[in-house]
Write a structure and sequence with these properties.
Elements: H1 2-12, H2 25-31, E1 38-41, H3 50-59, E2 70-74, H4 82-93, E3 99-103, H5 113-116, H6 129-134, H7 138-158, H8 162-170, H9 175-197, H10 214-230, H11 237-253
Parallel strand pairs: 1-2, 2-3
Helix pairs in contact: 3-4, 7-9, 8-11, 9-10, 10-11
Bound molecules: zinc ion.
Amino acid sequence: MEVLLNVIKNIFCVNEFQDKCNKCSLCHLIDLNNLPSLRIIEPDGQFIKKDQILELKHLFSKDSLYTKESIYIIKNAERMNKDSANTMLKFLEEPTSDVIGFFITNEKDNVMLTIQSRCQIIEVDFENDDNETLNLTNDEYNYYLDLTKTYLENIEIEKKKLILYNKEYLSDLDKDKITIILKIMLKKYQELLEAKVKNKTLTGDFTFLNKLSYNNVKGKLDLLIECLKEITYNVNLELFLDKFVLKVDEINNEII
Ligand SMILES: [Zn+2]
């Protein structure tokens, strides 16, 4: 979003836009998320709903009074359901004013093909902060991120029989790999806690964690910090992991 907002400032800015203009009223309004000709749409609940697109279409049916073009951003574009995607498609096909639209997604393949074909696709490969500290290539990082996501989904949502699940899922991984997964987990729970403090929710791939309570997340963070210390010692990996999921279970079952 930060990068994209800079791109948009670049389009609107009345000064010669530099990294941080913030002087002109347009850049300032973008920072405040208060520029009427810029609309950011994100999922309302699980999906982006048809009404949200209809409202956008209505708002942008006339030329903007503020800027030459109106701009909209669709966050998590893969979460348009069939109704909203079809409405979006009509909007793309029959624009009634000067409009620029950005669709952001981590799952391009889940965006309706007819929408994709009407867009210019720009792949962005961000150097990831978490990645930097882990010293992985982007591909490696994404690989571990995926592993972590699946693992967390199973222990937090599916509530599998955790010890058995550990054995089937993690048994091929060595200590270094497990450590990377734990570190990514730590990072995700940290982000989640931060979001909760600000009364926000996580967006992106780990939204399924949002349902955890503050205390639950806090408990998991303490546990992970403890485990990351412990794993640097010469531990029996299998026992270590069994203990880990038992603790996770304990935290999940605590009535808070
Ligand atoms: Zn500016």
